[in-house]
Design goal:
Length: 640
């Protein structure tokens, strides 16, 4: 009896355990079924989308950047294809040991010469930094060869998270000679990225940093496109996702400049290689800049080099005491020296204090006494008694010392300002400087902290251009304005923007900056004097152009930083209706007539022998000369 009861108890216990197990298993499967139903029915759309997104990647398509052409259609800046090896942190293995294996595999890759391509320390640092932006590609090696790109692609299964990205690099055909006008491009710094991404920029994107590349960044950049591509588990591109429309990028506009590549080359060839300075040439009829050259320069193609080479070169450039990054044509402020005597003469003629035949009370004996000060002339022997035309031709300092004392600073500055000096021209380039016209009020304000006060003796220096500072661009605008005698145009370097089809989408028309209201007799006298500067006995004979009447003025400006004066020369031609105006400044060059004038002369002769407009004008003067209506200028001259 007891035994039967015991068996019944055991049976009930087994049945209870079996029931508990069945219920537990049933509940477990019910939970699984409920979860599957939730995922596959209730969240079906969400999970399908996530699944697709896991196999798709949004690829941003950068637009082709606009190219840069000169006024004749010669290409000066273009794009070339390039490949970079990048890391996509979101596709890297999560375990550290697998990441180290990938780094080791990369470090085992060698280029065609057998050299190791990657450095393990650099790789680890770059990948660690890239983790902050898991879904953005970060460059490990830039501008790699096709061979290296192929090696990485072939071993993609062993290198998950390592991808090859196709890019374009900027290439400048004239190198350093156009660096300051064009500027350069650089990768967006990480601390600036967040503020720029709202404008359509992406991590690792390039942006114009100076010059035209910066000024016309928006026009040349274009608009990014995008497409979804299918990728496998290793992140390899398997092509566009079907039925997902692609948004094509909008290419940037091409810039067509006012610059003439032939004249730009001539400026670079002519400028003394061991010295610093700038050359500007423009068309005074409309403000179009024909030449903008600053020396020393930087080859902008270095910014398209691979990262390590670029960094080394950039470090050398940034620490160069010659400041090759400065565009001296628009930001170099120099005393104008004797070129300013044209402004002093302009003030005297317009106020009626001077005429072409005016002579000063004291002859030039090589020096002039004013109070206890003895101010010297550049010609130690002196020039004797001169009229205004002779004083400009021979650049007599003593003559203009007396003119300065006669006119005063206010009268001189009135006409300096009327010619656009002392204020930025408004050229379409960043970082242009104003310059400074000096004078009693400005001088006292500027040097108040030093306790310096304007004295009448400073008029001697002011009249010959030793206390003011102007840019080469301003000097070119001045000589062009004195040449045409009627209008000053705002200088501009971009003529028009065109789209990829060649259609003009934006044209930059001439803008009148100031109207010159001078007496015709004043302009005629200045023209006569400027031509005499180029003729025998003048200081600018080395700028003469056979058969073309050139007007100019040489100058030498005191330089507190060097033993030699700055050499300056300004000129325009033909003087009766100028189509080109040139300003040359050579730092520590010495005499303007001997150093700066030859540079200007080479550019002028290039213009009248190699450009279509110049050749046509030269032909007319030749015809007139043969008919006995013009005389042929001769090459000779002295130095100022």
């Amino acid at each position: 009896m007891q035994f039967a009861t015991h068996l019944q108890d055991e049976q009930r216990e087994r049945n209870a355990k079996s029931l508990f197990l069945i219920v537990t298993v049933a509940v477990f499967f019910l939970l699984i079924i409920a979860r599957l139903a939730f995922l596959q029915i209730i969240q079906a759309d969400l999970n399908i989308r996530l699944s697709k997104e896991n196999s798709m990647r949004l690829r941003v398509i950068l637009p082709p950047r606009g190219c840069i052409y000169d006024r004749n259609g010669e290409i000066l800046a273009r794009n070339r294809p390039s490949y970079s090896i990048c890391v996509l942190p979101s596709k890297l293995p999560s375990k550290l040991k697998y990441r180290k294996e990938i780094i080791a595999r990369l470090c085992s890759i060698r280029d065609s010469s057998g050299a190791i391509v990657f450095d393990s320390v650099e790789l680890e640092a770059t990948i660690k930094k890239a983790n902050g932006r898991r879904y953005d590609p970060t460059r490990l090696k830039e501008d790699v060869s096709l061979d290296l790109m192929s090696i990485v692609e072939e071993h993609s299964l062993e290198l998950p998270g390592i991808i090859v990205v196709s890019e374009s690099r900027r290439e400048y055909t004239l190198g350093a000679s156009t660096f300051h006008a064009f500027g350069y491009m650089s990768e967006i710094p990480e601390d600036e990225f967040d503020s720029l991404k709202e404008n359509g920029y992406y991590y690792g994107d390039l942006i114009g940093k100076s010059g035209l590349e910066r000024e016309y960044e928006k026009s040349m950049r274009g608009v990014c496109g995008q497409e979804y591509i299918e990728v496998d588990a290793y992140g390899r591109n398997k092509g566009p996702v079907p039925d997902v429309p692609r948004i094509d990028p909008i290419p940037g506009n091409n810039l067509y400049l006012t610059l003439d590549a032939r004249l730009q080359r001539k400026a670079a060839e002519s400028f003394p290689d061991s010295l610093k300075g700038a050359v500007v040439a423009l068309d005074p009829r409309n403000g179009e800049v024909l030449v903008m050259y600053s020396h020393p320069g930087v080859d902008p193609n270095i910014f398209s080099m691979a990262g390590t080479l670029r960094s080394k070169t950039w470090a050398a450039v940034a620490t160069d005491p010659n400041l090759p990054l400065n565009n001296r044509a628009i930001s170099g402020a120099y005393p104008p020296g004797s070129t300013f005597k044209l402004i002093t003469a302009l003030a005297g003629l317009e106020t009626g204090e001077l005429s072409a035949s005016s002579r000063m009370a004291s002859p030039c004996t090589g020096a002039y006494r004013f109070g206890s000060r003895i101010a010297h002339c550049w010609e130690k022997k002196g020039h004797g008694f001169l009229d205004l035309l002779g004083a400009i031709q021979q650049s007599c300092d003593v003559y203009f010392y007396q003119v300065g004392l006669m006119l005063g600073d206010a009268a001189i500055n009135k006409y300096a300002v009327a010619m656009g000096l002392g204020s930025a021209t408004g050229i379409d380039l960043p970082n242009e400087k104003d310059g400074w016209v000096s004078g009693e009020a400005l001088y006292n304000r500027r040097y108040r902290s030093k306790g310096w006060v304007w004295t009448r003796g400073l008029l001697l220096d002011m009249a010959i251009g030793q206390v003011q500072t102007f840019t080469p661009l301003q000097l070119a605008m001045v000589v062009g304005g004195l040449g045409n005698g009627s209008l000053l145009y705002r200088p501009h370097i971009v003529k028009e923007e065109r789209n990829r089809e060649g259609a003009v989408v934006k044209e930059y028309l001439p803008v009148v900056k100031d109207t010159l209201r001078f007496r015709p007799s004043t302009i005629a006298t200045l023209h006569e004097a400027m031509v005499k500067v180029i003729e025998p006995g003048g200081t600018g004979g080395l700028a003469a152009v056979p058969g073309i009447p050139v007007g100019g003025k040489s100058g030498s400006a005191q330089n507190p930083q060097g033993t030699k004066t700055h050499a300056l020369f300004i000129a325009c031609a033909p003087i009766d209706n100028p189509v080109i105006a040139v300003a040359v400044v050579v730092e520590n060059g010495g005499h303007g007539g001997g150093v700066a004038a030859p540079v200007a002369g080479n550019i002028l002769r290039c213009f009248f022998t190699e450009t279509e407009e110049g050749k046509a004008i030269a032909a007319k003067y030749k015809t007139a000369a043969e008919a006995g209506k013009a005389e042929k200028p001769a090459f000779s001259g002295r130095s100022d």
